[in-house]
Design a protein that fits this description.
5-stranded parallel β-sheet; single chain
Length: about 1100
Amino acid sequence: VSKACTSICQWVRAMHKYHFVARGVAPKRAALKQAQEDLAETQRILDAAKNRLQEVEEGIATLQAKYDDCMRKKEELQTKTQECEARLVRADKLIGGLADEKDSLSTLKPMDLVERDNGLDIIKLSDKDFLRSLENAVRFGKPCLLENIGTELDPALEPILLRQTYKQQGSLVIKLGDAVIPYHNDFKFYMTTKLPNPHYTPEVSTKVTLVNFTLSPSGLEDQLLGIVVAEERPDLEEAKNQLIVSNAKMKQELKEIEDRILFRLSSSEGSPVDDIDLIQTLEASKIKSLEIKAKVLVAEQTEKDIDVTRSQYIPVAVNTQILFFCVADMANIDPMYQYSLEWFIGIFLGSISNAERADNIPQRIVNINNYFTFSLYSNVCRSLFEKHKLLFAFLLCVRINMHKGIINMDEWRHLVAGGTHKPKELDNPAPEWISERSWNEILTLGALEKYAPFVDDFKNHLKGFKAIFDGADPHRRSARPMEHSSGPVPEDAGAERIASRQDHECQDYVSDNLGQRFIEPQTSDLTAVFKDSSPTTPLIFVLSTGTDPAADLYKFAEEMRFSKKLTAISLGQGQGPLAEQLMRSAMERGKWVFFQNCHLAPSWMPSLERLVEQIDPDKVHRDFRLWLTSMPSAKFPVFILQNGSKMTVEPPKGIKANLLRSYIGFNDDFLSSCAEKSAPFKHLLLSLCLFHGVLIERRKFGALGFNIPYEFTDGDLRICISQLKMFLLEYEDIPYKVLKYTAGHINYGGRVTDDWDRRCLMNILSDYYKPEVLSEEYNYSPSGIYHQIPPSQDHNGYVAYVRSLPINDTPEIFGLHDNANITFAQNETLEMLGGLLQLQPKTASGSGKSREEVMEETAHSILGQVPKPVSVSHVMEKYPVLYEQSMNTVLVQEVIRYNRLLGVIHQSMQDLLKALKGLAYPSLKPLASWVIDLIQRVAFIQEWIDTGIPSVFWISGFFFPQAFLTGTLQNYARKKVISIDTISFDFKVVQEAYQELKVAPEDGCYIRGLFAEGARWDFANNMLTESRPKELFTDMPVLWLIPAANRKVPVSGIYECPVYKTLTRAGTLSTTGHSTNFVFAVEIPSDKPQQHWIQRGVAMLCALNY
């Protein structure tokens, strides 16, 4: 079979079959196509219908949705309407409830209970680990309170105050000491001080925020009123206290309700009006508030009734408040005058109990005030130095009268600070007895309305005022000098009249207003002070120069049978640990410890304060006592001063008191202890004790007594007495020379550093250690008041003689002129007025100029007056350095010195006082007078430059007068070609006035401008003579300083008079043994022995203090 044909056959047959099949299928395909086309059309129509249906359905759905939404909104609105209606009811209740709470809720502070719950750390600088406690507070973010700081802050606090933080490894750190610690941002630092009126430097003030929490007068007054009413009317005070407790309880209930409200408000979710519990709480609060308000109304009415009665005791509270601030202000006078409020209130309570009872309240108030005022004065006086007791009494009196409106404040300020304005210039009507200084002060009185007529009328009554001026007690003379005077002279002008008797005037003022007992001496009894003490109350002896209470304490300890239980230690370097050990042992065993000279251990004082603060009254032995001695010191702990019992220790005042103190320590056995030499021993013992008293009391006369106020003590007297007894027993004849040397050069003289003071001391001693004192008729004073007594007298006889002496010393016993009392009184007056100035408020009135404005005006005024520096090159060209003329060198040196001062003034006028302190010549003049004096000095130098060497030199105009004197000697030495060491000055007093001397002397020089103190120049007899009454300083005539070689000082007929730059005379001790205030010594003709003028304290001065 052929395979190819087979395949072709199969294909033909297939094609044939396909032909018949295709012919049958073709109509069917056409029909299918038609049907499909019909179906597609129908489907299209269906789809269009469906689309329209879907649109309709979607429209229906949208409408349905809108319908449903409207229905939902309708239901919500219906629900909200119902809720609103309910909320309106609750809101009405809420508003009504909160309306009563709004006042209390508005005062809530986020700082309520500021640091109480934050773990406040309280530290002190005296704590051993105070820095570690501070570090912990910084590290853990705790608040820290540093107590009892002073005016200077510990340098370790500097990083804290300046916030010296920095980043280290991403953390905030601060460096304290050597440690770097993390700094927590929650850390807070507070500091407190107990200082009454601290003054912090601007450097400190810029680092901290100062807040004044000191006690206010009104606050103290309320506190004191409560105390006095509680004591006087305990029923009223109890009723008031019950009201206070009741009100407090009611307020506490309100507080609890407030807390619940705040809690519900803070924890409530959603609207507060939906909180039913909150609404119910508010409803209860409103009901309770209404109840409390009703009770408060009743309480307020009751309180008003009580306050009416309480108000009657307000004068007691006011008076007591005034006195407290008088006591507090005394710290401005001396740092040891510190008193606590607790101590003050203790005295107040005692006064209320002890004051005399009365039938009516006004009289009872008078009794309480009088008793308390004197009780306080007595207690405070125990701790005041004698010189401040009158000041304190005067302060009490003035403050009380200020409150009463008795004192005119303008007149008070004039009295204390002096006048600064003269309304009119009037000529001095009596220059022969009224100095220009005094007349200017009288003219300033015209600025006071009350005294304006007095100034105009003064010239019409000179005779009467001269009588007052010359009187022994001018302060007690009538201000109206002539009975027939009709001039408008104020009757109380005495306060402004005589400055030198101001202390006596103050005494009379206090006596007239408060009573005589306020100016009488107040003594301190050690037994009474001890009774007021306790184991936690230190007993403090406040020392003055030359005192030591150790002997008195040992004697008291023996009386109390504690002599074997008293341990004493003198504080100083390295004694702190031993003192602490002794104190801790004494507290446990009930002993006394006596720490002497606390002022010598200022670095240990914080440790002592810590020890005293840590005394536990429940654990310390009841017999323990802490005794302390200290000179006045700002480093002494205020806490101990305020909580201790203070006593001042001073030497007796006056020769009588000194003699009495000495002789009370003797007895008959001691007076007779020299056997056959008892008579000379008694005579010389009286001389020596009197000499001791004279030395001590001379100090009160200032520079007239001694240039330097030396600290002579009872120890000096005791050693001299021992040596007197020893030398009398060892020598057959009385060795006066030995006695003078040991007493004058060693025992007393060992303290003397000024040669002129040693000369004075030895001259005084020569009046008491000499054979003449062994005579029973010997007088130590011209009047014979102080005299020798027969040695047959026993101890009682000597004591009786001493008690017969006058209380007030007369200048004659010191060898001084009567004018010395004026100097002494003026010094006391200036000290008292200075103290009163320190007690005045440091505030300025709102209408006047500020202190800065006054200083600025003053500076401009001075700049306008002070000349410009002098050209040194011009002076050196005109006055070159010449061998034969040393004055050229002196002039150039003076110009350089003055230029330096003038340059400082012109450069730093705003800091004038500071600039002058180290660069100006010594002067005691006030600023205005000082500027005038400076202008005159520079004018003197300028005239020298312009016109040549002056014929008469104004020695007061030299910056360094010693150089001028050396130059004068040098000119003579070079002229005569001899050694300057062999040349000294001879002196001649010139009768002509300096204006008449037109030509300089051939050798030496004329000088002018010196003032004499303690004596005057007698122009008629050409010699030194006694001062006139009330004449403290006189002008000296021109002196001719005559250089002479190998000159011998005359042994008689002259007084070797020291010349000083200023009134103080004292200065820095130089290598020559003289004070830097000393210029040179002048020999002045005199018909009296030198000893007379030495004891008078006569000296010459280049410048006065006005």
